[in-house]
Amino acid sequence: MESSFLNNVKEAPVISIVATKSNAGKTTLIETLITIFKERGYSVGVLKHDAHKFEIDKEGKDSYRFTKAGADKMIISSKEKLAMVETIKEEKTVEDILDMFGEIDLIIIEGFKNNKYPKIEVHRKDIDSRLLCKDENFDITTFLAVATDEELNLLIPELDINNVSKIADFIEMKIIKEK
């Protein structure tokens, strides 16, 4: 996305929240982190990866019909929200999507496990015993910490998954303040 506006925008700090499986608690953690960072005065953006085809509009609605008719871009706007649906020929890179956020204090990525950005892995003992931060298929140097409900004896910090304020403090210190 080559725009003179975007080229002048500072690059926002990014943190990825990843897990081996669904239902580990990524969404709940991110939801709570958003609330905490908003209370601290930060603007927050979230990039969610969806491996499935998704529709953000309902069948039968005008905006849905415009996209189904072949509109390359469809924007729906109200006094509270703005959404754009763009038909793409191939999946965009994480970097292309991050450029769309413009000026923001923090971007949280959910999913895109193999991205190059710093990561906190969510691990719950009842969900999976495997860890991405120990998997040779991932760049383990991108893992900053594991938010967990058990002691793992790792070489990176283990954060209490039930103490989201401390996780927010960690992100603020390691990601936002260092930027």
Q: What is the fold's blueprint, element by element?
A:
Blueprint: H1 4-7, E1 14-18, H2 26-39, E2 44-48, H3 62-68, E3 73-77, E4 82-86, H4 94-99, E5 106-110, E6 119-123, E7 143-148, E8 158-160, H5 164-176
Parallel strand pairs: 1-5, 1-6, 2-5, 6-7, 7-8
Antiparallel strand pairs: 3-4
| First-last Cα distance | 23 Å
Number of strand elements: 8
Give the low-pLDDT segments: 1-9
- Strand line-up in the sheet with most strands: 2-5-1-6-7-8
Give the overall average pLDDT: 90
> What amount of the residues lies in strands?
15-25%
The level of helicity is 10-25%
Radius of gyration: 18 Å
Alpha-beta classification? alpha/beta
Tags for this entry?
179 residues; alpha/beta; Rossmann fold; 6-stranded parallel β-sheet; two-stranded antiparallel ribbon; 8 strands; globular
Task: Describe the protein in words.
This protein has 179 residues and is α/β, with parallel strands linked by helices. The protein has a domain at 4-51 and 102-176: P-loop containing nucleotide triphosphate hydrolases (Rossmann fold, 3-Layer(aba) Sandwich), CATH 3.40.50.300. Helix content is 25%, strand content 22%. It is built from five helices and eight strands. The strands form two sheets. Strands 2-5-1-6-7-8 form a six-stranded parallel beta sheet, with helices on one face. Strand 3 (73-77) and strand 4 (82-86) form a beta hairpin. The longest helix is centred in the N-terminal third of the chain and has 14 residues, at 26-39. The relative contact order is 0.23.
